[in-house]
Amino acid sequence: MTATPKIVAINGSERDGNTADVLRHAASVAAERGVDFEAVDLRNIRMLRCGPCGDCNDRTIRCEQTDDVPGVVDKMIAADGIIYAAPVHGFGTASLMQTFIERAGVGYLRFDRPLANKVAGIVAVARRYSAGEVWAQLTVNALLNRMIVVGSGFPAEVHALHRGDAAKDEEGLTNVARMVDRMIDMIDLLNEHRRLTGRRDVLGVGERNERVGLALDELREHL
Question: What region holds the NADPH-dependent FMN reductase-like domain (predicted)?
Answer without folding.
Answer: 5-155
